[in-house]
Amino acid sequence: MKNNRILTKLLVIAVLCSFCSEASAQNRISSPYSRFGLGDLQSNNNVYNMSMGGISFGLYSPYFVNSANPASYAAFDSLSFVFDAGLHSRQSNLITQSISQSANHTSLGNLQFGFPVTRWWKSSFGLLPYSMVGYKMLDSKVDENAGNTNFLYEGEGGINQFYIGNSVSLFKGFSVGFNLSYLFGTINRSGATEFPDSLLKINYKILKTAQVRDVYLNYGLFYHKQYKNGFHYNAGLAFSNNSDISVSESRLGYTYFVSSTNVDLPRDTVLNEPTVKGDFLLPASVGFGFSLGKNEKWLAGADIHFQQWEKYTWFGVSDSLKNSLRLSVGGSYNPSASTVSSYWQRVTYRGGFRYSQSYLGLRGQNINEFGISIGVGLPLPRTRSTINVAAEFGTRGTTTSNLIKENFVKFTLGLSIFERWFIIRKYD
User: Fold this and answer.
1) For residue 126, how many other CB atoms are within 10 A of its CB?
2) Burial of 142 (C-beta count, 10 Å sphere; 0-12/13-18/19+)
3) Would you list the DSSP string of 88-111?
4) How confident is the model at residue 426, as a pLDDT?
5) Less packed terminus of the chain by CB within 10 Å, N or C?
6) Phi, psi of 19 (to 5 degrees)
7) Does residue 191 contact residue 152 with C-beta atoms inside 8 Å?
């Protein structure tokens, strides 16, 4: 047992080091659809949820941190500590009606901790990505007066969230909870118009850097029913209100020439606003999910999530975003959770699918997403800790109306540590 605890702590240290190096590497996504709104929203952060189609609101487990519904923290064992971490790697193929291009990125999935405060009060904290921005696009048109006209768009960065959550059991099987999240991050965007065939028109570029720093709350309700024959039923509800999130933005616009080495040679500054303070409205959302299963043998569940993105504003200006909707179905199967069974009998097999109507509607087309996921939970010897591996195969967008379709494969590697750290051992 002592060797197992030493191995567990070494694994935690190794994972924390990998996350530190990952954060310093500034890896970013490459998706043209991250140009709009807040970027590419990150919803399925936990490998446990992602491997089952993204179901989360109705999941209740003492071995994983489920921050999608803060009331689910009530599932933590009163004498245990949970550490949950994961890394995402995504390979995409971007397709238009005429060309295709590959892109890939690796990023932090989740870094979370869960622990008891009392028998009726459980808590969690962690670091998660909220949205990511990464794109570089060129759109060319022919003007009868200026000739070829190039429109260049580029962006990078994103928003992260650090949260502290609490769950309180009001009576047997029913709990309430909340997450207090701190959103922070920087998003850099630029747009340029160039006239390579005209000597009379001058190129123009505007640079915008937005820094997000603010807090917001989301809430959860959960009901868990355990029957004597091993069957259990779970139902969960998570929601948030409209929140005004503070943001400061610097704006710089200038005319320029392009050198022979493709470097901007500024001519005149036409816009210079070092700091403009305002906010954006993060719209209300609601999610409901349920699951049922038998002991640790099998589990099946479904989720629905809705967010009112039509109310989204940036510095008081409305955008053309649409309300989003996500449907998820998934489950897991474990041939035998007994520690005396053979190793492969103790492996947990997971799968699911999801369908999302995103907040984007471009050129009369809805930018929707579909994904199928599979995964396994590989138990570490003589512990409840697991190494979790998952893959999601999906598609987003369409080539209709000269848009872009993304076919992607998303791999996730996670580590879930379950340790009884609050027991004084008589024997070691």
Assistant:
1) 23
2) exposed
3) EEEEEEEE-SS-EEEEEEEEEEEE
4) 54
5) C
6) -70, -35
7) yes
The b/e string for 293-304 (b: 16+ C-beta within 10 A; e otherwise) is beebeebbbbbe
Tokens of 69: 């519904």
- Among candidate residues 205, 188, 207, the one with its CA nearest the CA of residue 134: 188
Residue tagged 């989360």 (tokens): 56
Output DSSP code: residue 24.
H
DSSP one-letter code for 145:
T
Quick: pLDDT tens for 362-398. Answer: 888 999 999 999 999 999 887 888 999 999 999 999 9
| C-alpha closest to that of 151 among 200, 206, 180, 191 | 191
SS3 160: strand
Q: Work out whether the CA dihedral 77, 80, 81, 84 comes out positive or negative.
A: negative
Q: How far apart are the first and last CA of the chain?
A: 7
Give the integer Cα–Cα distance in Å for 279 and 251: 15
106: Cβ contacts below 8 Å, ≥ 6 apart: 22, 27, 87, 88, 89, 90
Q: What is the token pair recorded at 259?
A: 């050198």
What is the Cα Rg of the chain in Å? 24
- Considering the entire predicted model, what is its pTM? 0.88
Q: What is the pLDDT of residues 242-275, one digit of tens each?
A: 999 999 999 999 999 888 787 888 889 999 998 9
7 phi/psi in degrees, rounded to 5:
-60, -40
The pLDDT of residue 420 is 74
Neighbours of 389 (CB within 10 A): 18
∠ Cα 406 407 413 (to 5°)? 115
**Amino acid sitting at position 37:** G
Nearest Cα to 327, choosing from 307, 302, 350, 299? 302
